[in-house]
Write a structure and sequence with these properties.
Layout lengths: L1 H29 L4 H13 L9 H22 L3 H18 L10 H12 L4 H26 L2 H22 L3 H23 L10 H18 L7 H16 L17 H14 L11 H9 L8 H22 L6 H10 L4 H28 L3 H15 L5 H18 L4 H24 L5 H24 L7 H17 L7 H19 L1
Length: 530
């Protein structure tokens, strides 16, 4: 445990130093007015690591470039007068909210939304627009370079170790005689398998086709899970354990997996034989990009991209667009000093789900209040700017270890107030900032409650409906004589819906359906692959 904590501290420290160094360099190259774009660039690069953009590098880079430049131009136009601010800020935030919020995957709107609000807070004139556009172009390039370095061949780099871990868990489960330990091992198995499925899902070709190696990994997970489920039906568990240990040894020592059939016992059990066959397919990398996508699947993918006004994404986009648009209009029209703090607060607290907005609002108020008291006391007692700067850096470092939004807001408030005072701000200015933050809290609460609210209960109903439809598609695909290549994709989607429903504590309602899907899928794959 101590070793894990040490690794975490080292990892967080290195990341923190890299981020600070990157922002300092970004500021030096693109100027003070674009420093915050450096912050959102590194934020975006780190957040997008969970998505694999290397499957279509050129297209994703072009989309990032167009989006960044477009937002830069829109923020400039919005700064010309309050009416344009109302229109262009609504459009920009709507686009960001709609495109980058998702039903079954983690949202990605934060770096783009924060970047846009930063550009509103620190506007540039026409002469400074050129440098701002350059910084946004660099941002797009940097995100894609990080993707190519980290996510190239992501399925192989992260998938094979995940398979090895799942085999280890299966071995331990077969050896275990403790029911409580069995449950823990199965939960661990499901946790690793869902992460693997997410990696495969986020590495799809053409946004809907899973590569051959990804399909093989999904099937390996299914067969290993089946072994876990029928543990008490297996008579010769020792044979399974020995065979799985040898398979893992082959993986660990990077032996030629095509010789797996030489392992004793492999041919005596159908499931072990299928697993070894699938592992051999993984090593045969020359087939990983050889796929034919049916026109039916292409057309289904296109038809899924519809504009649904009742969806969570649409409602969130409208809500964030209206609140930021109207608030920026008020700030510009009345020329409110430090009005940017109201916008930052609104962006942080307007959430896709109403309940999350309420929770964040309470935590924001608590964190801001506690952070303000600490900052006022601390910076009243210590007047040396050097020591104050060290405090701010230390607080920024501690922020990387925060566990709750409330803790984060304590650190952020201390840093913001401290930086303001060091740069010559007065306690009156800081008080004005806190008032604007609280005004932002009030506007956010009103927006979350009255502007097309979307509750967790709404999400549950939608997800259960999606789950039922997806289950039907899986069964139809299994029983259809004309397969269109969508089965593995559909199976992963069902797993992602399950994960989202578990987050909402809604697992019992789909428990039976989950087992039905697993049984249907496993029976079909066993028949096809044996």
């Amino acid at each position: 445990m101590k070793g894990e904590k040490r690794k975490l501290v080292i990892s967080k420290t290195i990341t923190f130093l890299f981020i600070v160094g990157f922002i300092i360099l970004f500021k030096k190259i693109f100027g003070d007015e674009n420093t915050l774009i450096g912050v959102t660039t590194i934020t975006g690069a780190l957040m997008f690591l969970e998505r694999n953009l290397t499957t279509r590098k050129e297209r994703y880079f072009f989309e990032l470039l167009v989006l960044n430049i477009g937002l830069g131009i829109f923020s400039y136009i919005a700064g010309l007068n309050p009416i344009l601010a109302l229109i262009f800020n609504f459009i920009s935030m709507f686009i960001i909210g709609y495109i980058f919020s998702y039903d079954i995957r983690s949202h990605m709107y934060v770096p783009f939304g924060l970047q846009y609000v930063f550009m509103l807070a620190v506007p540039v004139d026409l002469s400074g627009l050129y440098n701002r556009i350059l910084s946004l172009i660099f941002s797009s390039i940097f995100i894609m370079v990080v993707q190519i370095i980290v996510n190239r061949n992501k399925i192989e780099k992260e998938g094979i170790p995940a398979i090895k871990n799942l085999i280890d868990i299966t071995i331990n489960l077969l050896k275990s005689e403790d029911i409580k330990k069995d449950k823990e091992l199965k939960l661990k198995f499901d946790s690793i398998s869902i992460k693997l499925k997410e990696i495969i899902y986020n590495s799809k070709k053409e946004n809907f086709h899973i590569e051959t190696n990804g399909k093989a990994m999904i099937d390996i997970v299914i067969f290993l899970r089946s072994i876990c489920n029928r543990k008490f039906e297996i008579e010769d568990k020792e044979m399974y354990v020995e065979a799985l240990k040898k398979i893992n040894l082959y993986i660990e020592e990077k032996r030629d997996l095509r010789t797996l059939n030489e392992i004793d016992f492999i041919d005596t059990d159908l499931d072990l034989k299928v697993i070894s066959k699938l592992l051999i397919n993984l090593q045969n990398k020359k087939d990983k990009n050889n796929f034919v996508v049916s026109e039916e699947l292409k057309s289904k993918n296109k038809s899924n991209r519809y504009f649904n006004k009742n969806s969570m994404s649409f409602r969130y986009a409208i809500r964030i667009g209206i609140t930021i648009g109207l608030s920026s209009f008020i700030v510009d029209y009345f020329n409110i000093f430090q009005g940017k703090w109201m916008l930052f607060t609104i962006f942080a607290l307007i959430q896709p789900y109403s309940e999350y907005g309420k929770i964040r609002t309470i935590q924001r108020m608590q964190g801001t209040f506690i952070g303000a008291i600490i900052a006022f006391v601390l910076f009243s007692l210590v007047n040396n700017p050097i020591i104050q700067s060290v405090f701010i850096i230390g607080v920024g470092y501690l922020d990387s270890f925060h566990k709750t939004y409330k803790e984060k807001m304590i650190y952020v408030t201390i840093s913001a107030i401290g930086a303001s005072l060091i740069l010559g701000g007065t306690f009156k200015m800081v008080s004005t900032r806190l008032i604007l933050i609280m005004l932002g809290v009030v506007i956010s609460a009103i927006g979350n409650k009255f502007i097309l609210p979307y509750s967790i209960e709404d999400a549950k109903k939608e997800l259960v409906h999606m789950y039922a439809l997806n289950k039907e598609k899986i069964i139809n695909e299994i029983r259809s004589e004309n397969k269109n290549g969508s089965l593995e994709n559909l199976y992963i989607v069902s797993s992602l819906i399950e994960k989202k429903l578990y987050e909402f504590n809604y697992n019992e309602e789909i428990k039976n359906k989950k087992e039905e899907i697993l049984d249907e899928y496993f029976t079909f794959k066993r028949k096809v692959l044996s």
